[in-house]
Automatic annotation (TrEMBL):
<dbReference type="InterPro" id="IPR000683">
    <property type="entry name" value="Gfo/Idh/MocA-like_OxRdtase_N"/>
</dbReference>
<dbReference type="Pfam" id="PF22725">
    <property type="entry name" value="GFO_IDH_MocA_C3"/>
</dbReference>
<protein>
    <submittedName>
        <fullName>Oxidoreductase</fullName>
    </submittedName>
</protein>
<feature type="domain" description="GFO/IDH/MocA-like oxidoreductase">
    <location>
        <begin position="135"/>
        <end position="254"/>
    </location>
</feature>
<dbReference type="GO" id="GO:0016491">
    <property type="term" value="F:oxidoreductase activity"/>
</dbReference>
<keyword id="KW-0560">Oxidoreductase</keyword>
<dbReference type="InterPro" id="IPR050984">
    <property type="entry name" value="Gfo/Idh/MocA_domain"/>
</dbReference>
<dbReference type="InterPro" id="IPR036291">
    <property type="entry name" value="NAD(P)-bd_dom_sf"/>
</dbReference>
<feature type="domain" description="Gfo/Idh/MocA-like oxidoreductase N-terminal">
    <location>
        <begin position="7"/>
        <end position="125"/>
    </location>
</feature>
<dbReference type="Pfam" id="PF01408">
    <property type="entry name" value="GFO_IDH_MocA"/>
</dbReference>
<dbReference type="GO" id="GO:0000166">
    <property type="term" value="F:nucleotide binding"/>
</dbReference>
<comment type="similarity">
    <text>Belongs to the Gfo/Idh/MocA family.</text>
</comment>
<dbReference type="InterPro" id="IPR055170">
    <property type="entry name" value="GFO_IDH_MocA-like_dom"/>
</dbReference>
Length: 356
């Protein structure tokens, strides 16, 4: 276990998500500091490092991984590079926070999880929204029985980037497409709130020849135990939406901004029952900072991971099946594998609220 007061980070790449959200979140967090940044373009690395006051700038990822002062790395690289650089970082003795989706397949994710276990290092998938306090509050509302037995969930995450050029999301071989980019969010939140894994999936998608043949829009049905259905739609060729609805026998829970909530904008949610409609106010906090601090507490203080690597493996199994269902236009049954994470398993109290 490291003895440093703060976890020392290096960032592999200067992607937009790193510059716009994760690095600022790390810098605002309590238990982390960013000490190095690497890019295959040394000048770009230096410019980005200077922008954030980061000491070291490297012209290759290998250089950063050889820096013994770096304890953890954040990987915001294109999806097809996640497996390679996660494993290389783990083998270099670094803890790894890797952008979602963790891998391109469940087999890759399992290989990464095993590499972390072998190296004795922590590995986490960067779903920042799960660390926001409102989701603990949402689970409390569901578990309390206020909206009755669960009957369905519906999640949406869409935006329109169809006119952009040179977009890595349009390269199929690199893990492009709407399911990998944003469909993973409603799939993830359903697994987290229900505390179980789907038994089968069916998905349909618009594969666009204009955009490298990737799924630009997709919709799907996840069949959970007890007859509970989850529907979702996602993609990169529609107006912006970012919502979640949880339907119960006695009420509805609505999250207007389900997956993006920061220091500005709406972070609360609505609960509607026979008694009326109420707004649950939630503090505006940086969920990227909270994600980083949760990771640091595991590394620095030995606290259990809220979402261990096997959760990412289970989620990747569902995401991969959705893509295959859309490509083959078939319903795909999934093997039984239990709850997806320690925190999902803890949500077993939902069983008493109508989820068998």
């Amino acid at each position: 276990m490291t003895q440093s007061a703060k976890l020392r980070w290096g960032v592999l790449g200067a992607a937009g998500i790193a510059r716009g959200s994760v690095i600022p979140g790390l810098l605002r967090s309590q238990l982390n500091e960013v000490k190095a940044l690497a890019s295959r373009d040394r000048d770009k690395a230096r410019r980005t490092a200077d922008e954030f006051g980061i000491e070291a700038a490297y012209g290759s990822y290998e250089e950063l991984l050889s820096d013994d002062s770096i304890e953890a790395v954040y990987i915001p690289l294109p999806n097809h590079l996640h497996r390679e650089w996660t494993i290389r970082a783990l083998e270099a003795g670094k803890h790894v926070l890797c952008e979602k989706p963790l891998a391109l397949t469940a087999a890759e994710a399992e290989e990464m999880a095993l590499a972390a276990q072998k190296a004795g290092r922590q590995l986490a998938e960067a779903f920042m929204y799960r660390h926001h306090p409102r989701y603990a509050m949402i689970r409390e509302v569901i578990a309390s029985g206020e909206i009755g037995d669960l009957r369905s969930l519906h999640g949406t995450f869409t935006f329109n980037s169809s006119g952009s050029s040179g977009n890595v999301r349009f390269v199929k071989e690199w893990g492009g497409g709407g399911l990998y980019d944003v469909g993973c969010y409603p799939i993830s939140v359903a697994r987290m709130l229900i505390g179980a894994e789907p038994e089968a999936v069916t998905a349909r998608a618009l594969f666009s020849p204009e955009h490298g043949g990737v799924d630009m829009m997709a919709s799907g049905l996840l069949e959970f135990p007890g007859g509970l259905g989850v529907t979702f739609d996602c993609g990169m060729w529609g107006a912006f939406r970012n919502k979640l609805e949880v339907l119960g026998t006695d009420g509805i829970l609505e999250v207007p901004s389900a997956f993006m909530a920061g220091l500005e904008g709406e972070t609360g949610f609505y609960v509607t029952t026979g008694s009326g409609r109420r707004y649950v106010d939630v503090p505006q906090v940086d969920h990227f900072s909270l994600e980083a601090d949760d990771f640091a507490r595991t590394v620095l203080h030995g606290e259990p991971q809220r979402f261990p690597p096997q959760d990412a493996v289970a989620g990747m199994r569902v995401l991969e099946a959705c893509l295959r269902s859309a490509e083959q236009r078939v319903r795909i049954e999934l093997p039984s594998c239990g709850a997806g994470s320690a925190e999902a398993a803890a949500a077993g109290a939902l069983e008493s609220k109508g989820v068998e």
